[in-house]
Amino acid sequence: MKHLNIIITGKVQGVGFRETTKIIANQMMVTGFARNEKDGSVYIEAEAEDIFLEEFVNWCNEGPDRSRVESVVTTEGEVKNYRNFEILKK
């Protein structure tokens, strides 16, 4: 099990990014959360086996149809054992 903190920038708010991310995370058995940040980015904490996280990050680089991803920055973190994947509202 591995934990990633992911910051995605570009046109990623108001395009269904978090909602689509939740669907993809559930399909890939990834747990954690996604939330919009004040600077216009999306912040995700994701936990899964390496192979699933790799695919998940690949998807984050594409995003949903209406998004335009400019960058995806990942850093490893401490595993928090999330039970599911949630969309957090600030």
Which key terms come to mind for this protein?
single chain; alpha+beta; 5-stranded mixed sheet; 2 helices; 5 strands; 27% helix
Which regions contain 5 or more consecutive residues with pLDDT less than 50?
none
- Percent helix, as a range, is 25-40%
- What overall geometry do the principal axes of the alpha carbons give? globular
Distance between the termini: 27 Å
Order of helices and strands: EHEEHEE
Q: What is the total tally of β strands?
A: 5
How much β-strand is present in the residues? Answer: 35-45%
On the 0 to 100 scale, the average pLDDT is: 97
Task: Give me the oligomer status.
Answer: single chain
What is the topology, as strand order, of the major beta sheet?
4-1-3-2-5
**Structural class based on helices, strands and sheet pairing:** alpha+beta
Count of discrete alpha- or pi-helical segments spanning 4 or more residues: 2
Q: How large, in whole angstroms, is the Cα Rg?
A: 12 Å
Largest sheet: 5 strands, mixed
